[in-house]
Amino acid sequence: MNNSIPNDTFKTIINRKSIRAFQDRPIPTDVKKQIISAALRSPTAGNMMLYSIIEVADQGKKETLVKSCDNQPFIAKAPLVLLFLADMERWNDYFSCCDVQELCQKRDAPYRTPVEGDLFIAVCDALIAAQTAVIAAESLGVGSCYIGDILENYEIHRKLFNLPRYVLPITLLCLGYPTEQQKNREISSRFEEKYILFKDTYHHLNENDFAEMYKPMQNKHFASGNYIKGAGNIGQHYYLRKVSSEFSLERNRSVREMLKNWSQENS
Ligand SMILES: Cc1cc2nc3c(=O)[nH]c(=O)nc-3n(C[C@H](O)[C@H](O)[C@H](O)COP(=O)(O)O)c2cc1C
Fold this sequence. Notes:
The chain is an alpha+beta fold. Helix content is 49%, strand content 10%. It has helices spanning 8-15, 29-40, 59-68, 74-77, 89-97, 100-106, 116-139, 154-160, 180-184, 207-224, 234-243, 246-262; strands at residues 51-55, 80-87, 143-147, 167-176.
């Protein structure tokens, strides 16, 4: 091990890359169990485990996800697909079982159902569990890729997985053994640390910072011809590809629907 890679854990983290093509072989049950057991050891707010995980084993459901998550065919080919949910339903239901509302009445204290703050902390829990699964899988030779498009088409996903009101789909993970081509693919670049890590206070970046920060990305995209027609720089390219694109508009509509559904009683 050299200084920049001090141990095997670091090696796993530093060399990880998203895997979008999988070998045609299943993940053995014991490996799957290890990945899940690692995820369940994740830090969790107040040790409440405000998340649930659904293993999407049904091929028909995987095919539906291909379409509902912006047409990404590799979802259907992933041997293991895990849906991470922010889950306040379990505790809310348990509070009902425990007559918490009656207790509050007796104490003349307000009783409340989950609101935005509860949702945000549950989202943190779900994502942290997902990332632990990613690293655990990677350490076992199993590659993975997040599917952020699970935030789209809330109505479809709610029905597909029978999600109650206080359970929202946060992220989807596709896992499997990487193909040789994927193994050999270079890892992707990142912005330099100085643009991301600040000390004590936020640092607003200026035009010169941006020019320097995006230069490698811009050079790479434009050299390879991988940019949207009409875009003159990386900002225009990303805006057209990621911000004003159909999938991102659908994501915003869908998330608005999720929030409406979550907070209907509290509004
Ligand atoms: C929240 C989130 C959502 C993502 N959604 C997708 C997705 O829908 N499809 C996909 O192919 N990759 C998706 N990715 C993977 C990213 O594209 C990938 O992490 C990024 O390009 C950096 O590459 P790397 O993971 O290989 O380092 C997502 C990653 C994150 C963290």
